[in-house]
Amino acid sequence: MSKFVMIIFGASGDLTKRKLMPALYALYKDNRLPEDFAVLGIGRTEYQDDTYRTYIRTEMERFVAPEEHADNRMADFCDRLHYLSLNPAEAADYGKLAARLQELTGEQEPDGMLYYLATPPSLYGVIPLHLKAAGLNRPHTRIIVEKPFGYDLDSARELNRIYASVFEEHQIYRIDHFLGKETAQNILAFRFANGIFEPLWNRNYIDYVEITAVENLGIEQRGGFYEGAGALRDMVQNHLIQLVALTAMEPPAVFNADNFRNEVVKVYESLSPLTEEDLNEHIVRGQYTASATKPGYREEKNVAPDSRTETYIAMKIGIDNWRWSGVPFYIRTGKQMPTKVTEIVVHFRETPHQMFRCEGGHCPRANKLILRLQPNEGIVLKFGMKVPGPGFDVKQVMMDFSYSDLGGLPTGDAYARLIEDCIQGDQTLFTRSDAVDASWRFFDPVLKFWQEHPDAPLYGYPVGTWGPLESEAMMREHGAEWTNPC
Ligand code: BG6
Question: Which residues form the active site (predicted)?
Answer without folding.
Answer: 239 (proton acceptor)
